[in-house]
Amino acid sequence: MTSLQGKTALVTGASKGIGKAIAIEFGSAGANVVATARTRDEIDGVVSTITGSGGNALGVLADLGVEADISALADRAIEEYGGVDILVNNAAIIHPRIPVTELNPALWRDVLNVNLTGAFLLTQKLLPEMIERNYGKIINISSIGGRKGGAGRSAYRVTKSGLISFTESLAAEVYDNGINVNAICPGGTDTEGYRAAFNTSGKADNPSLMDPTEIAEVALFLASDASSAVTGTAIDSFGGSNPLFG
Predict the structure, then answer these.
(1) 55 and which of 27, 77, 103, 120 could share a cystine (Cβ 3.0–4.6 Å)?
(2) 135 counts as catalytic
């Protein structure tokens, strides 16, 4: 039930961290993977990993903060594979702790543009073809930070909260079109972005951090036919950072 054989998945922010783990997991499950990011060497590495294991993958350079790149990305995926069955909106800018009084408005706009508007625009571009085929899986990568605000984290957390609301609103719109829309809210995860934003060595400093592959397993479930009863929800995948643990 978690096989993605014959399906095409587009994963944004696929060169590192959670996006990379999801792209590789989907490739292992049989999907044609369109992996996109802003760095050619890194995205080529992900494609090589998938194809080297017998999978099928295409790497496309795109900046999710540039609308023309989003349109070109969607067109390339449809041209190559005839359509996209699974969309994972994962690309994100993670900023360090910055008080609102010191937050550069340009950074605020960049974070909202990539993390939230980029997800909206790419979804909007791919939806008509999903609706026409009466099938689709859309997975938005939110965050534990999307559940409530936090000092110094305003821009990032606004976008992650917005993705949850976007998930719920879109799910209500397209349920009758055979499209499931869900979000994942990862807790602390040992990714390059997390290490850079918080100046940490990852698990070496905080053993409670999850491995990106743990989130990829949740994404695989949501992308598969096993999740047919699940839509319009945000799955809390907090791991060791769960507030229940103190």
Answers:
(1) 27
(2) no
